[in-house]
Amino acid sequence: MAKTGSHCPTNGFWRPEDRSAAPVFVFEGSIMPVSGGGSTVWYLEDAVFGAPAYPIPQRV
To answer: In this structure, are residues 1 and 43 in contact, taking their beta carbons and an 8 Å threshold?
Structure first.
C-alpha cells in the first residue's frame, strides 16, 4: 500500500483504493500519482521483479 505523493515501495501495477481506474505501472522510488484528480491510497496488484521484458525508452 502507498499513498499519493509518497515514494513507490516496489515496481509493479498499482490500483487505486476505490478501484475506479485500471492498474497503472509505477517504478520503485517514483512518486505515487493522483487518481480521479485527488489523493488516494494505492494497492499493489502485481509486483514486477527483475529486468524489464522490453527495452525502456531513453530520456532525451
So the answer is: yes
Place of cell 490500483: 15
Which cell numbers in the block locate residue 2?
Answer: 502507498
Please tell me the distance from the alpha carbon of residue 27 to that of residue 14, in angstroms, as a whole number: 10
Give the torsion sign (CA, 9, 24, 3, 30): positive
Model pTM above 0.85 = no
Per-residue cell: 40: 488516494
pLDDT tens track, the chain, 60 positions: 999 999 999 999 999 999 888 899 999 999 999 998 899 999 999 877 666 566 666 666
Task: Extract the C-alpha cell encoding 19.
Answer: 478501484
